[in-house]
Amino acid sequence: MPELPEVEALAEFLREEAVGRTVTRVDAVAINALKTFQPPITDLAGRTIAAVGRYGKFLDLTMRAQGNTQENAQENAEGAGDLHLIVHLARAGWLRWSTSLADKPPRPGKGPLAVRVHLGDGVGFDLTEAGTQKRLATYVVTDPALVPGVSRLGPDPLADEFTEQALADVLKAAGRAQLKGILTDQARIAGIGNAYSDEILHAARMSPFKPANGLSESETGALYAAIRSVLTDAAVRARGLAAKDLKSEKKTNLAVHGRTGQACPVCGDTVREVSFADSSLQYCPTCQTGGKPLADRRLSRLLK
């Protein structure tokens, strides 16, 4: 799943390659990927990509009508100002940039292509999604806050406003909730998913099941430092990479996530896994749980 560092890298890539280009056509291939219908996504044609931003794991492409300036965009009548193409790539979605898009409209089907955006002269990008669980979401809105997932986001963990005290406030409000769930709850902290939450907890040397109200002041400081360092380092590594290279870069630099059965790069212990219905987490017993393996709840149910 693309998380904060990869989405920010995609935003930076699009700022370099797409800002200033005009949308010539939009092909909506998978109707289920369209979460808004008014304005229709086809209304983006003829608009210029004026800016690219990020809200947590959401991409925001600001689309400006021809002739509009930053100053008058908000003064025009409704429907004539900026539109925003908001994209959430979900678990298996991705953005694929191309300089040789076929001009012929793609046929709707069961393939990975969800939306194709043409920017002229064969340039553009595809929004694709692998697998059978189609969760990639696109929204066309006049204000990003109109997207429910954006409006409910917690603080961005790389923003200046996200201080150690801000994290302490999040933990206090969470009560006995477990750290793994707090880190991945977008309403508490925006942008962290399954992979980087495992990496953060490994860096902080904390159990994923440790309750929020069980942290001392020094442990809160250690968790804060891990959040900032893991995400910042990942964002720096991703910066400047082409969109097609971001997935492999992320996977190559993970210490525990997705590495069940391999040696922990810090202590050499075997990385363990806890499985859930549709996901799993990875951790190092020596680094995080005092050498004690956590119960794999799915396996425990099978053995009963």
Question: Strands, helices and their partners?
Answer:
Layout: H1 4-17, E1 25-28, E2 48-55, E3 58-64, E4 83-88, E5 93-98, E6 113-118, E7 124-129, E8 137-141, H2 148-151, H3 164-174, H4 179-184, H5 194-204, H6 217-238, H7 246-252, E9 272-275, E10 280-283, H8 285-288, H9 297-303
Antiparallel strand pairs: 1-6, 2-3, 3-4, 4-8, 5-7, 6-7, 9-10
Family: Belongs to the FPG family.
Cofactor: Zn(2+)
Organism: Actinopolymorpha cephalotaxi
Order of helices and strands: HEEEEEEEEHHHHHHEEHH
Count of discrete structural domains: 2
CATH class of the largest domain: Alpha Beta
Mean pLDDT comes to 92
Widest sheet: strand ordering: 1-6-7-5
Hey, roughly how much beta strand do the residues contain? 15-25%
Low-confidence stretches: 75-79, 299-304
CATH topology of the largest domain: N-terminal domain of MutM-like DNA repair proteins
The major β-sheet equals:
4 strands, antiparallel
Which architecture of the largest domain per CATH? Alpha-Beta Barrel
Could you give the count of β-strands? Answer: 10
Helix content: 25-40%
Estimated structural class: alpha+beta
Q: Identify the overall geometry.
A: elongated
Q: Alpha-carbon distance between the termini?
A: 32 Å
- Number of helical elements: 9
How large is the radius of gyration?
A: 21 Å
CATH homologous superfamily designation of the largest domain: MutM-like, N-terminal
